[in-house]
Write a structure and sequence with these properties.
Layout (H helix, E strand, L loop, with lengths): L4 E6 L8 E6 L2 E5 L10 H6 L11 E3 L5 H4 L2 H6 L5 E4 L1 H17 L6 H9 L1 E3 L6 E2 L4 E6 L7 E6 L5 E4 L22 E5 L10 H18 L2 E5 L5 H15 L7 E4 L1 H12 L6 H8 L10 E3 L3 H5 L8 E5 L9 H8 L5 E5 L8 H6 L4 E4 L2 E4 L3 E4 L9 H9 L7 E5 L3 H15 L3 E2 L6 E3 L3
Length: 445
């Protein structure tokens, strides 16, 4: 009987495009099937044939519903996959919206029929519900990253196990429970988005955000926030609601200018049982944690276009989070030349994206073939990231370091992955490597 093997077909050398193949006996298990995001050239890469036969895959396990983890699932199905897809129920619900939105705004890889066929193959599991597949057992742990995010633990009859973290959360989150610790692992494949740096302290994060808004109010300016529809939107709405309710800042117009974010927030509202105890307590006390009187949801294009006529101070939350598409582009074209405006980044900006270009200090950018001068103030708050930072990643591994045979460091820019692998080797004496794309690694399971 041959030993299990692991092959990384995506998520190596880059944060996005998670796609990992685990072969156990005669079973082929795919973990995540995400889009590469960032540079324009990735469109051609995403359209290429898979490096394996989709029809040969028995199972697809999904860690969470971000597009860089689910964005190629319908293409996999279109190209022949007929197996079963597993995730949490919340991941499936959110994926339904995210994939349909991909078809609507940008995807040439698949159509709505492929999305619907994918969903017909999709089954759900609860956290800690053990599913026996014969060759292995699967158990989901809460990653604390976004609603429904899960770490996937596969345990073989030998008792040895491998864990796929997906993306680990930046705990403690304003909304979600802390990332669960998992011990006794034989192998670990983990993310390293922030493997080489740490977030600012959460008190400093909150202070900085409040200060920005107070300054905005004083100067009657405009704050635009390129927002990820999933998790970041809900966290920012929650924080704004709290500041307005306590009177820390005066109530000013806040525009949620993203139809997808509006629909995802509705899923969040239905899943409050998965929140942390603080957020659940606030809801039991009667607080509608994502809604406040000065919030305006602009689902229709005409409503979005009217935002410009509302005088400052005002806040605009619009997708996409890396300024690669969506309504944020129109707002950036309008407000980036305005020295009285501020653009605030509250999430990771991939290399090659417009968001990264602005964040790194470009004085002019191209938006819809128009040259746009950047006079607006550019700010970044990393503390609202949904990703664990370097110290948190090391701490997570420390709980299973004594049993680990090897850790595979993935889903990060090269410098982040290499730095984290070195920290794990030096500080925890864990054999940690940055895997090569397409190389088969034999696992002693």
């Amino acid at each position: 009987m041959s030993k299990p093997t692991l092959t990384c077909w995506g998520g190596v050398g880059t944060v996005t495009g998670a796609n990992f193949l685990l072969e156990i006996n005669n079973k082929k298990i795919l973990v995540d099937c995400g889009l590469l995001q960032g540079l324009p050239s990735v469109e051609n890469t995403n359209a290429e044939k898979f490096d394996y036969d989709p029809a040969s895959i028995d199972y697809l396990f999904i860690t969470h519903a971000h597009i860089d983890h689910i964005g190629k699932v319908p293409k996999l199905v279109r190209d022949g996959f007929k197996g079963v897809i597993y995730s949490t129920a919340e991941t499936r619900d959110i994926a339904t919206l995210m994939l349909a939105d991909m078809v609507k705004i940008s995807s040439t890889l698949y159509d709505l029929q492929d999305v619907e066929k994918s969903l017909s193959l999709w089954q759900t599991l609860n956290y800690h519900e053990v599913k026996d597949f014969g060759e292995f057992k699967l158990e989901l742990f809460n990653a604390g990253h976004i609603l429904g995010s899960a770490m996937l633990k596969l345990t073989l009859p030998s008792g040895k196990s491998v864990l796929f973290t997906g993306d680990l959360g930046n705990s403690p989150s304003p909304l979600l429970p802390i990332t669960e610790n998992v011990s006794g692992l034989s192998y670990l494949l983990m993310d390293s988005v922030y493997g080489d740096r740490n977030h600012e302290d959460k008190l400093e994060r909150d202070r900085k955000f409040k200060s920005l808004i107070l300054n905005l109010i004083e100067k009657k300016g405009t704050l635009i926030i390129p927002i990820f529809s999933l998790e970041r939107t809900q966290v920012i709405l929650y924080e704004l609601n709290k500041m307005f309710e306590t009177g820390e800042v005066s109530q000013i117009p806040v525009f949620l200018d993203s139809p997808l974010a509006i629909r995802v927030t509705e899923i969040y509202e239905r899943a409050s049982k998965l929140y942390n105890q603080t957020a659940q307590g606030e809801i039991r006390g009667g607080d509608d944690i994502f809604k406040f009187s000065n919030l305006r949801e602009t689902a229709q294009v005409r409503d979005s276009q009217e935002i410009i006529h509302t005088p400052g101070p005002k806040i605009i939350l619009a997708g996409s989070g890396m300024s690669t598409a969506g309504r944020i582009l129109g707002h950036e074209e309008t407000y980036l030349p305005d020295a009285g405006a501020t653009i605030l980044f509250v999430g990771y900006q991939a290399p090659g994206t417009l968001g990264r270009t602005i964040q790194e200090g470009a004085k002019q950018v191209m938006i819809d073939n128009h040259e746009v001068i950047v006079r607006a103030k550019v700010e970044t708050i990393d503390g609202y990231s949904a990703h664990a930072d370097s110290n948190a990643l090391v701490d997570f591994v420390s709980h299973t370091a004594s049993t680990l045979k090897q850790a595979f460091i993935t889903m990060g820019e090269p410098r982040s992955s290499i730095f984290l692998a070195q920290r794990l080797n030096d500080e925890l004496n864990v054999k940690a490597i940055v895997p090569e794309r397409g190389k088969r690694y034999e696992l002693d399971l």
